[in-house]
Design a protein that fits this description.
The complex is a heterodimer of chains A (210) and B (251). In chain A, strand 13 and strand 14 form a beta hairpin. In chain A, 54% of the residues are buried. Chain A has one domain: Class I glutamine amidotransferase (GATase) domain (Rossmann fold, 3-Layer(aba) Sandwich). Helix content of chain A is 25%, strand content 29%. An 8-stranded mixed sheet of chain A has the order 2-1-3-4-14-13-12-9. A 4-stranded mixed sheet of chain A has the order 6-5-7-11, covered by helices on one side. The radius of gyration of chain A is 16 Å and the shape is globular. Chain A has 6 helices and 14 strands. Chain A starts with a strand and ends in an 8-residue tail after the last helix. Chain B has one domain: Alpha-Beta Barrel (TIM Barrel). Chain B is built from 10 helices and 12 strands. In chain B, strands 1-4-5-6-7-10-11-12 form an 8-stranded parallel beta barrel, surrounded by 7 helices. The chains are: A alpha/beta (210), B alpha/beta (251). At the A-B interface, helix 1, strand 8, strand 10 and helix 6 of A face helix 2 of B.
């Protein structure tokens, strides 16, 4: 069963509904015994990095998630949930992430044209990088998805599978091993977003991005 | 490249979508969830639901409808109307809204913006402002455009952004319902003053009005309208095709 990890941040209603819409049974849980049996994990997240990673650690779910990934269980991080997959974040201080992917989270203000608005909010197009990853099998280069963020992942190396252009390229999606992540919100990205969730649910955690 | 957003607005009273001209003479249009699905299918980038219920019963009906919409529509949903406290934010976010728009509630209690932004983040708080020229000055009106608050609009918007409003909806009462085009001078004054996304509302009558909006002021992020969409006077796919022809980036 696919499990949405509920560690107390954000509203999971839309995310849960979007899995129902693609006919994928999903359960929302903070229970370690449920997460330990999950066949797929979704790590959501909105708000501040320090608060979110703190809550994940306080519940002990951080170590469990890392252990499940080591066992090859496919994991999808969304927005802040994706940012937490990296080594560290520079959002209001320096905070250690889960370290499942190489790279760090920094303000987009460091790279974008200063006249552009922050947060980067709205629909922007995906520039697919390299060979198409299985999770993105139904997605075409240029498809638009919905972003809301002021920080982005940098130095992600070969885990990059899609960028988006906001006067500078920003990391939109990453994958390595059985871990993948979207900076945007698939649950708010209409048909394209649902197709990405479907791609994730059909993915066995291998092939591409490794 | 970030795209310009096209946003249909659904005013909901007692479970039905209504739209007035200059806020008077409301006319029944359709069922909210059916209309929402239609808009999502034809390419609306976001939907705004405005609760104009006058009773607790109407309000409860509204949250039921919102839940139904959020269960089936996977684009951003903004909710406004009757938002006066952080508990109201909780109520509509719990039904699947992504952003909450405050108007009269923020005028009565300006700390609402800051409280909500601290709890949910700036991106969740939309400040909606009904503005009308009075003796050549942009004044903020409350209670659905009926009461002149005396507040100067640009200063009020600046304060709102400083308190944490992540987006501004500029609704010109002067052009609302008239279908003669968006209020370009008013929008210019707002985009010159703040750096958060600005959504233009009030006055859309034709596809050309949207082209003029985005060509005149590239700092406007989105165009919002109700009746021209509800009555099929503008079809969103046609609108987007025309915007593309004019090199305006849309989804």
């Amino acid at each position: 069963m696919t499990v949405i990890v509920d560690y107390g941040v954000g509203n999971l209603f839309s995310l849960q509904s979007s899995f129902s819409a693609i006919g994928e049974p999903v359960c929302v849980s903070a229970d370690p015994s449920v997460i330990a049996r999950a066949t797929r994990l979704i790590l959501p997240g909105v708000g501040a990095f320090e608060d979110a990673i703190g809550k994940l650690r306080a519940t002990g779910l951080d170590a469990l998630i890392v252990a499940r990934v080591r066992d090859g269980v496919p994991l999808l991080g969304i927005c802040l949930g994706m940012q937490m997959l990296f080594e560290r974040s520079y959002e209001y201080g320096v905070h250690e992430g889960l370290g499942l992917l190489r790279g760090e989270v920094r303000p987009i203000a460091e790279v974008i044209d200063p006249s552009l608005k922050i947060p980067h909010i709205g629909w922007n197009s995906l520039c697919m990088q390299g060979e198409k990853h299985p999770v993105f099998r139904y997605i075409n280069d240029g498809d638009c998805v919905y972003f809301v963020h002021s920080y982005a992942a940098f130095g992600v190396e070969d885990a990059l599978i899609a960028n988006t252009e906001y006067s500078a390229p920003l990391t939109a999606a990453v994958a390595k091993g059985c871990v993948c992540g979207c900076q945007f919100h698939p649950e708010k990205s209409g048909r394209v977003g649902l197709a990405i969730l479907r791609g994730f649910c059909e993915w066995d955690g291998t092939g591409g991005g490794v | 490249m970030i795209t310009k957003r096209i946003i249909p607005c659904l005013d909901v009273r007692d479970g039905r979508v209504v739209k007035g001209t200059n806020f008077e003479d409301l006319r029944d249009v359709s069922h909210p969830a059916a209309l929402a699905r239609y808009y999502s299918d034809v390419g609306a980038d976001e939907l705004v639901f405005y609760d104009i219920a006058a009773s607790a019963q109407g309000r409860a009906l509204f949250t039921d409808i919102l839940t139904e919409v959020a269960r089936t529509i996977f684009i951003p949903l903004t909710v406004g109307g009757g938002i006066r406290t952080v508990a109201d934010f909780d109520r509509v976010l719990g039904c699947g809204a992504d952003k909450v728009s405050v108007n009269s509630g923020a005028i009565d209690d300006p700390s609402l913006i800051e409280q909500a932004a601290r709890r949910y983040g700036d991106q969740c708080v939309v400040l909606s402002v009904d503005i009308k020229r009075v003796d050549g000055v942009f004044r903020v009106f409350s209670k659905g455009g009926r009461v002149n608050t005396g507040l100067e609009a640009i200063e009020w918007i600046r304060r709102g952004v400083d308190s944490g409003a992540g987006e501004i909806v500029v609704n010109s009462i002067d052009t609302d319902g008239v279908k003669g085009g968006f209020d370009l001078p008013m929008l210019r004054a707002v985009t010159d003053a703040v750096s958060v996304p600005v959504i233009a509302s009030g006055g859309a009558g034709s596809i050309e009005d949207f082209i003029r909006l985005f060509e005149d002021n590239p700092k406007v992020d989105a165009g919002l309208a109700a009746s021209v969409f509800h009555f099929g006077e503008i079809e969103i796919p046609d609108l987007k095709a025309e915007l593309k022809k004019h090199h305006i980036h849309v989804r």
